[in-house]
Write a sequence for this structure.
């Protein structure tokens, strides 16, 4: 440790340059990780916020809510198996609305849930129990001029609803969520082209899925009782959201490459420094310094630079997070931050193995001989 610290204090400019590069790479890794997590949450916040363990969908719907339709019979059979309190129907439709008096069109996702059930979102402002003709909207719509009392019109059906309250962090496929009650959802269903002119009865009421809280035994029982349905987990439902896997795959590849690049840059820097110090290492070995001590010295330098760069990078990322606009999805939880920092340190130490290997291969007599020459 003494040798490592003394050398870093002696060659401040050299190690400051390495630390600066590591700081920039660590900042980029943390920022992209936070962006990936933020985009993932923004893409599937409403599904992730649900306390359901599984979802019952129509068979061959590819795990997508928008491709599934479940009728009242399926909802009732599911409720009999898992218990009425553990099964809640969900209606979902992506559409475009226009606030009254405005010309701006806003893409949203309509979500029909029981306002008194366990799928109901937490209201942060306004009425928590909207009546017929009223909706709860995500607070992101406030940036588009939508407020409590604003009337929004569905461009496809012409239905009009009054905003009665705001909810927080509710979105689907990067569009803000608008929560309807059961009556408004059924009225909307009756206006669809396939149902125009017909009256919705209790038997042919349709939703997109049934959210359930159930054990694996109950899931198997549902699968056996409903052969025309499929039961999926919450993570499968999230992964099936259009564009979710592709978006996360691209960002994850960027993060992995950043880790590899940081380890490679660090390995090259320390390997070159080790080659330049071959004579000094040879002399130290000749006077009795053990190879293990020299290897520890190199490793300690990498560890100090990694931890120091990460500490400053975390402060910079937190500063950026505080000043980023609310419309920019960015989320870096403590567990994700800890895992990213630990991975960065491990990759940095892995990059130092080349230098350690070079130190171990240095022959003392050869190094001294070349010095004499």
């Amino acid at each position: 440790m003494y040798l490592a610290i003394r050398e870093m204090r002696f060659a401040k400019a050299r190690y400051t340059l390495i630390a600066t590069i590591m700081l920039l790479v660590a900042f980029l890794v943390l920022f992209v990780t936070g962006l990936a997590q933020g985009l993932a949450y923004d893409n599937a916040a409403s599904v992730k916020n649900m306390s359901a363990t599984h979802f019952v969908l129509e068979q061959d719907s590819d795990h997508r809510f928008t491709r599934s339709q479940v009728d009242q019979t399926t909802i009732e059979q599911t409720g009999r198996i898992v218990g009425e309190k553990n099964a809640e129907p969900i209606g979902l439709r992506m559409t475009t609305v226009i606030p009254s008096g405005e010309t701006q069109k806003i893409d949203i996702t309509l979500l029909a849930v029981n306002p008194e059930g366990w799928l109901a979102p937490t209201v942060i402002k306004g009425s928590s129990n909207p009546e017929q003709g009223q909706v709860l909207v995500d607070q992101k719509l406030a940036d588009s001029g939508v407020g409590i009392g604003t009337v929004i019109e569905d461009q496809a059906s012409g239905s009009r609803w009054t905003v009665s309250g705001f909810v927080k962090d509710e979105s689907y496929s990067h569009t803000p969520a608008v929560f309807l009650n059961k009556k408004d959802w059924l009225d909307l269903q009756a206006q669809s082209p396939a149902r125009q002119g017909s009256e919705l009865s209790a038997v042919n009421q349709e939703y997109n899925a049934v959210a359930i809280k159930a054990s694996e035994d109950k899931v198997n029982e549902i699968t056996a009782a409903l052969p025309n349905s499929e039961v999926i987990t919450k993570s499968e439902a999230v992964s099936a959201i259009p564009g979710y896997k592709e978006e996360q795959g691209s960002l994850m590849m960027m993060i992995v490459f950043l880790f590899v690049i940081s380890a490679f840059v660090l390995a090259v820097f320390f390997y070159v420094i080790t080659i330049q110090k071959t004579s000094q290492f040879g002399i130290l070995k000749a006077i009795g310094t053990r190879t293990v001590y020299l290897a520890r010295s190199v490793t300690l330098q990498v560890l100090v630079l990694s931890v120091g760069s990460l500490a400053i990078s975390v402060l910079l990322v937190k500063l950026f997070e505080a000043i980023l606009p609310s419309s920019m999805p960015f989320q870096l939880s403590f567990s994700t931050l800890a895992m990213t920092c630990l991975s960065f340190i491990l990759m940095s130490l892995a990059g130092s193995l080349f230098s350690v290997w070079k130190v171990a291969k240095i022959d003392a007599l050869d190094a001294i001989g070349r010095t004499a020459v």
Q: What stands out?
A: The longest helix spans residues 12-49.
